[in-house]
Amino acid sequence: MNPINKLTNWYFSRRALPYWCILLLDCVIVFFSGYVVHYFEVGGDEFTRTFWQTTYGFAIAMIPFIAGFRFFHTYSGIIRYSSFEDLRRVKAASFFGSLGIFILSFLPIPAKFVVFLTPIGYIGLFLLSTFMMWIVRIVVKLLFEEFHTDGAIPVAIYGTQEGGVSLANAFASAKEKKYLLRLFISDGADMKKSYLLGHKVILNGEGFTEELKTKGVKALVVSPLKSKLFRDNQSMVDELMQAGIKVFMMDNAYEWDRKTQLSQNQLHEVEIEDLLPRDEIKVDMDAIGNMLKGKRILITGAAGSIGSEMVRQVAPYMPAEMVLVDQAETPMHDVRLWCQRLANEFKSENGVEYPTKFETIVTSITDQNHMEMIFSQHKPEYVFHAAAYKHVPMMEDNPIQAVRNNIRGTRVIADLAVKYGTKKFVMISTDKAVNPTNVMGCSKRICEIYCQSLNQAIVEGKVAGETQFVTTRFGNVLGSNGSVIPIFREQIKKGGPLTVTHPDIIRYFMLIPEACKLVLEAGTMGKGGEIFVFDMGQPVKIVDLAKRMIQLSGAKNVEIKITGLRDGEKLYEEVLNDKEGTIPTHHPKIMKAKVREYPYEEAKRNEDALLEICNTHDDMQIVKKMKEIVPEYKSRQSRFEVLDK
Questions:
Q1: On the chain, which terminus has fewer CB atoms closer than 10 Å, C or N?
Q2: At CA 141, angle to CA 137 and CA 145, rounded to 5?
Q3: Cα dist from 36 to 52, 61, 125, whole Å
Q4: What are phi and psi of 97, to 5 degrees?
Q5: What's the CA gap between 285 and 287, in Å, rounded?
């Protein structure tokens, strides 16, 4: 090991030098700078003759410099982590010290203890001492970045505007190096052969990964201002995946404020959810907060993927009470622990109790007596109904449970909402309710019909109440329980194969937090009776999703197996019925569906008949009645296809 490496390893292995070492180093620099300035002012002979007097003079002159170092805290930091702010403080301290020496020359101090410089000399002392202290800090920082890179990932930053520069500055100022910047990548031809912050800029284009490999780049960091462009550039994503280059993106990139300083800790290695092309979703959270603050909220299905996210998004608005209902005990316990952590953190930070009272109740929405007790006790002002059996193959095998849980359970909750004066009831439906091809989708369509007809009956005065019923429809949410992405992850861990039901099957996807924000927004804008549908963006081919996940995992020799469509499964899912249209709303991602409306008495009578048939446990008769209620329900890949002939 050469002497430089030995020295740097010794220094950088230390957590930090004692502050007096930095102070002593700066004092030596000032002494040396003073000698140099004095030498050039008086010449070599005079400098030699008055050397000791000069030394005594600069010893006294160190008093204002040390005072400046102390006042501006130039020695309290760690040199290897110096920033522009540290250099600014050094400049200020040096100016303070130089000004102090100038003032000392006018005080009644014996001449042998005073260094007399010309005005140019004082300026020279300030400039030289400042420059040398800067140089020491910059050199140490550069050496640290060059030699102390254990565990740091060599990266390129995609983006040369504010976001990219902010990331580069965050990497440079980080105390623990996670990322080592090698290159910038730009989409602009004007940046060709340019350098930014001392690093080369290369252009994004076919074959750019070869240059990344040449520079030893192991990962690409996406600027927050480039996140959407990156997702939409699927050829770039594919090239990076094939080259084995990891990708890191910023958490909540859409929400980054240019005035907010970035940190390397805000970055995470991308999951498949990050790479699916989607548009930014903006929601008026202030309006939602004003609607929910201080109110009593009931959320059914609160332990599920959507329900638990609804809890996380509603709780920060501090409603008076949140009543959380689900029949899944273990996931419900997790929700309860989250609520306790939120309350404890709030109390530790603010010294007062969290204003929201949380009630976590393990029960079924079909237990009418228990639900009646809950409504009578808590009288919720807002109900978010997310409880439902949702797995298509399971409900195809168990239609009686789809009817009892989804249809009867929704009716129980809806009727109690009216009875106990709930202001707004928001039901979460699915795109599978449109032209349903399976029991689950049809059960949700019947739920829509009941809620919409009940709302109309209230408006017409046929049912006494004031509740506004709003329905929201959307497609698959990424990462939800039982969805395709967690299944693929588990299959990759086991070495494959990844099972895809059909090579042409496509699905719409949305992030769970985004879907819940739109649900809250729709609940805010809804006046009652609407069925809101969400713009789900571009559909994704499931087989392409599987290929992308295999590439992203780095797994080798993992196959994709086509298994055939499951019972009730479609190749694609609509969000609207063919006979339906949409009406735009003020939110570009939310439309109002124009659907066939049913009289309340008819909807109620149909459900009564369906629930009566359930007592026979005859699956064929149950599904036959469902098809009578929803004529557009045509079974696919199912034993119930015989009922359509």
A1: C
A2: 170
A3: 15, 15, 8
A4: -65, -45
A5: 5
Contact 478, 276 (CB under 8 A): yes
Determine the angle formed by the axes of helices 439-459 and 600-614, rounding to 10 degrees: 140
Using alpha carbons, list the distances in angstroms from residue 573 to 5, 109, 290, 488, 539: 62, 91, 35, 20, 9
Place of tokens 């209620």: 629
Nearest 5 degrees, angle CA 135-CA 141-CA 142? 90
Q: Which residues pair with 298 in a beta bridge?
A: 323, 383
What is the Cα 432 distance to its own chain's centre? 28
The sign of the torsion formed by the CA atoms of 66, 70, 71, 77 equals positive
H helices present in 248-367, as ranges: 272-275, 285-292, 305-314, 329-350
User: What one-character DSSP code corresponds to residue 261?
Assistant: P
Out of 57-71, 151-165, 421-435, 493-507, which region has the weakest mean confidence (pLDDT)?
57-71
Q: How far apart are CA 442 and CA 301, in angstroms?
A: 19
Does residue 170 surpass a pLDDT of 60?
yes
Q: Is there a contact between 614 and 400 (Cβ–Cβ < 8 Å)?
A: yes
Q: Which amino acid is at 217?
A: V
For residues 202 and 143, what is the distance between their CA atoms, to the nearest angstrom? 25
Check: pTM over 0.70? Answer yes or no.
Answer: no
279 vs 203, more confident:
203
Q: From CA 531, how far away is CA 585, in angstroms rounded?
A: 12
CA angle 274, 279, 280 (to 5 degrees): 90
Q: Which of 404-418, 528-542, 566-580 has the lowest mean pLDDT?
A: 566-580
User: According to the per-residue pLDDT averaged within each range, which of 234-243, 254-263, 336-345, 522-531 is highest?
Assistant: 336-345
